[in-house]
């Protein structure tokens, strides 16, 4: 590259120089993003807030209903249950996916034989849409024609979608199957960024592989874990497509998580007012959770973990 | 500095172009030439091949073209109601008449078809009056019957019954006995797509009709919620419970669906003996398992129940499907011509060939040309003889009630709700 014509290099330099002259990026740089954010996040949010005080079936014009939707929501046991279910599925998701993706990520960061090929195969679920994955698993878990019919010792009568525990288990499993590769990717990158000096020093001190993993790798991955967990929490709270296709909130309302309940109220019962109220509750809860996570993790004043090296 | 504008201008115009393309995608199908076209939206299932054929026939002669769109079964009503008041709304759409179009009529979205009928009285006179009236709202006609009448029947696998020395059950006790025999042989007695919830509802509809007659549901629909708490209601629930506890549906029915072909395959592959389903079941089996549909599929009406007040010849199901027209369509004249095809001989024959039973007055002449003439005759007699044809509960109730109704129906089958809980849930449903 550097052997090419002199003038081009000249020009590039001049461009860079004039860019540097702008000093701090002004508001103009943020304008496109701000505009999109206003248009696609803030405006709909305001509309939803307004709708939550109306009765609207999506056909005629909305009727002002005062606090009716909110009063109904407070006494709605399905709504309260759905919040717990959302939290449960999120927590289970984090608990299942974190250890798996750390182990896989650390493994994938190494230099073993066939590692690249195996990793590539393992990342495939990440490329599929959640809908396709859910349809696939729904078919695979059919009690009469799917895997359960061939493995009765494990699945019994195969009524996976007929009990709350097994239905939640399926949701968590499919979620993990889909998203673990993504978090593995994050951990792989982070592991590779750990300075090799640390391991060399540990080896001299006589630390084995397991000791190295717990004393160097894990502490060095701390900030990555927080990033990954925040993504898992956000993903868990907004789980929707897997529920829609795999369980439809059933049996009964046993897997009706908040995001699905919102959809059900708005687009199946055509009560857009009630649906909007649920949506607002979700927004508020998600905001509170992310504030807590940021505070607790120190994400806002996070320091580099390679400090002092 | 001047040169820096070029990449920006390029980037800007690319963004703009992308935006315009997207906008164009959303804009839909406004007419490009003078002739134009209108869209026909139907429920996506095995009957679509007839709709396709009729649209093709229409397009051969008409300048204004019809375009067929389908929405897969389970999501039809949801998507329809979401788009019907938007620019993307279809001109003509499939529905179940009565309660399913009432909200649209109330919102002033539908075109009363009385003018069309005045010009071509055949649009009314060629259909059975009781069926045509299913889409009359507040004295005005809003739908022309399409497809066929869809009574719910008890289908069976003939071979499984024969192998176990059974026949199609005539009485409730026959059914209970069949359940006992089949269970001992490790065959699921009755296939049920419980995951879809509405197939489960059919058992309630028949049970309530056999025990209490059609009056109980009419009373409840009319707003008298005490009907759900009556002795008849409790008796019907007790009978259902008896059947469930006898193991009639196996244990994993909640993980089985009708809409993904699960329960259909159970019967076709002799893993289950019975399935309670609408008459469209025949065309579904014909599509999924043609050989079984031809020779192995048996059917009978719902068994009689001793001591019940309901007429044993009563039926439940979908009275018919209808085409309704949107008020804002620009092609009312062409649509009138299109609707005429819904009573043509070609239409009747094509539906007969896939096992549907159209409700034109000419149907009786074509019974012999049906895919299985006996099946067509059986259905025809069933509908003709029935003193009451109860519309599916989830279609009769307003759409706002259907989720809660389906949940209650599933939970009572699972034992999660007892009779009291079910009654309470039904009483909580909005009736208007």
From TrEMBL, chain A:
Domain of life of the source: Bacteria
The protein's name in its UniProt record: Xylobiose ABC transporter membrane protein
GO cellular component: plasma membrane
PANTHER family: ABC TRANSPORTER PERMEASE PROTEIN (PTHR30193), INNER MEMBRANE ABC TRANSPORTER PERMEASE PROTEIN YCJO (PTHR30193:SF37)
One GO BP annotation of this record: transmembrane transport
Location of this chain's protein in the cell: Cell membrane
Membrane-crossing residue ranges in chain numbering: 21-54, 83-108, 120-140, 160-179, 225-246, 272-294
Protein's organism: Actinacidiphila cocklensis
Membrane topology: Multi-pass membrane protein
UniProt domain ABC transmembrane type-1: residue ranges: 83-293
UniProt record similarity statement: Belongs to the binding-protein-dependent transport system permease family.
Main location: membrane
Keyword tags: Cell membrane, Membrane, Transmembrane, Transmembrane helix, Transport
Pfam families, A to Z: BPD_transp_1
InterPro entries for this protein: ABC_transporter_permease (IPR051393), MetI-like (IPR000515), MetI-like_sf (IPR035906)
UniProtKB/TrEMBL annotation, chain B:
Keyword Signal set for record: yes
SUPFAM superfamilies cross-referenced by the UniProt entry: Periplasmic binding protein-like II
Keyword Signal: yes
Short name of any one Pfam family annotated for the protein: SBP_bac_1
Keywords, sorted A to Z: Signal
Signal peptide: 1-23
Alphabetized InterPro entries for the sequence: Bact_solute-bd_prot1, SBP
Protein name as catalogued: Xylobiose-binding protein
Origin species: Actinacidiphila cocklensis
Lineage, broadest ranks: Bacteria, Bacillati, Actinomycetota, Actinomycetes, Kitasatosporales
